[in-house]
Design a protein that fits this description.
single chain, alpha/beta, Aminopeptidase, Aminopeptidase i, Domain 2, 2 domains, nine-stranded mixed sheet, five-stranded mixed sheet, 10 helices, 20 strands, zinc, hydrolase, protease, Peptidase_M18_dom2
Length: 433
């Protein structure tokens, strides 16, 4: 990199760290994205209203406060040039607080939690945990309201059992999510009233809220340790929720600087980690409905989709130096060796030779790698095949190589993030795809 490129990459990484630290839940991630879009001149749309959209303008719409579509309506005719689509997801595996979570054992107040997604459970022990999410309540007029809450401080932990009491822990240990994972809140003579805790915290942060009664909540635990630029030579980005907020951020950064000539779209769906089958998930109607409202006539819309391409971005598995036999010998992506094109013959990824070829063409001199899982191992999936199935758009699945996927703290290469951003920039500006 030149000195200017390195300075730009460092600034990009710092903005990424700030975004990751803000985005402690999907709700907070969408809020952080919306604030950046509004600052860049994007107009908020409400799905309950009629829309008046025109070329040359920029828009965004949220659903469930946890999924978002941002759209640049380009000056070039989208029926001729199509739409450049970027896709990612806002959710990450975590521990979610149960509806009636108050536990009390041996003088300790605890929270009942359930596992969301494919969580790597062991790293959750002995961490400083906070709580955040969305709270629904009635106001004095008995109207339903919602607000986001973030405790922003360590309020819980899950202590490990001492090795003296479990001598075989380093040989073999299974974790029971029901009995081993309830976080410890503190000493108490009786269960802590969790809804009252939420009410007090909301009013402390937002004193003007009109709260008559807490009705329900969606609250997650998260690690208080912030994102960091680490390694002897600063090679790595370490953070919670890199899968897949890293892709959300990279896509957002590219959309914010799109020149407005081509029509561009970023969709970040919730619930990918649990199958995407929800009103705001990739298997739901959100993206299809958006396209139908912008182009209501079916024939032009089908022409437009045929001329469009989606890059579905979701982190890839980097080859672990301690476990190299977990990768195919010819397909072990290295951190900081470039973004990864994800291939699977059974359509767990949506990439094909045409769309992966386009991604390589966009990269030009920038490094690109390929991931194929071992033939004797199962393969994960992304929103890519689901979105391709739902709307029929040509799709390539890509991602930044990562260690520790689904851990409470994941690791990516700091250079790969900026390289992916550069490729996205070229994609959004490309006249034909």
């Amino acid at each position: 990199m030149t000195a200017n490129d390195q300075a730009a990459a460092n600034q990009f990484l710092q903005r990424c760290i700030e975004f990751l630290d803000e985005s402690v839940t999907p709700f907070h991630a969408v809020q952080a994205m919306a604030s950046r879009l509004e600052a860049a001149g994007f107009q908020a749309l409400n799905e309950a209203d009629a829309w008046q959209m025109s070329a040359g303008n920029k828009y965004y719409v949220c659903r469930n406060d946890s999924s978002i579509i941002a759209f640049v309506y380009g000056e070039a005719d989208p029926l001729e040039h199509g739409v450049r689509m970027l896709g990612a997801h806002t959710d990450s595996p975590c521990l979610k607080v149960k509806p009636q979570p108050d536990l009390h054992q041996h003088g300790y107040a605890q929270l009942g939690v359930e596992v969301y997604g494919g969580v790597l459970l062991n790293p959750w022990f002995d961490r400083d945990l906070s709580l955040a999410g969305r709270v629904s309540f009635s106001d004095q007029n008995q109207q339903l309201q919602s607000a986001l809450v973030d405790f922003k401080r360590p309020v819980a932990t899950i202590p490990s059992l001492a090795i003296h009491l479990d001598r075989g822990v380093n040989d073999k240990r299974s974790v029971n999510p029901q009995t081993d994972m309830p976080p410890l809140l503190g000493l108490s003579e009786e269960p802590m009233a969790f809804q009252q805790l939420l009410r007090d915290e909301l009013l402390k942060q937002q004193p003007d809220l009109d709260i008559d009664q807490i009705l329900d909540f969606e609250i997650s635990c998260y690690d208080c340790q912030g994102a960091g630029h680490i390694g002897l030579n600063g090679d790595f980005l370490a953070s919670a929720r890199l899968d897949n907020l890293l892709s959300c951020f990279i896509g957002l950064e590219s959309l914010l600087i799109a020149d407005g000539e081509q029509s561009c779209l970023l969709v970040c769906n919730d619930h990918e980690e649990v199958g995407s089958a929800s009103a705001c998930g990739a298997q739901g109607p959100m993206l299809a409905s958006f396209l139908e409202r912008v182009w209501p006539d079916i024939t032009p819309r089908e022409q437009l989709i045929n001329r469009s391409v989606m890059i579905s971005a979701d982190n890839a598995h980097g080859i672990h130096p301690n476990f190299p036999n977990k990768h195919d010998g010819n397909h072990g992506p290295k951190l900081n060796a470039g973004p990864v094109i994800k291939i699977n013959a059974n359509q767990r990824y949506a990439s094909n030779s045409e769309t992966s070829g386009l991604f390589k063409l966009l990269a030009e001199e920038l490094p690109v790698q390929t991931f194929v899982t071992r033939a004797d191992m199962g393969c994960g999936s992304t929103i890519g095949p689901i979105t391709a199935t739902e709307i029929g758009v040509r799709t390539v699945d890509v991602g930044v190589p990562t260690f520790g996927m689904h851990s409470i703290r994941e690791l990516a290469g700091s250079e790969d993030c900026y390289t992916m951003h550069q490729i996205f920039n070229r994609f959004l500006a490309r006249q034909r795809v």
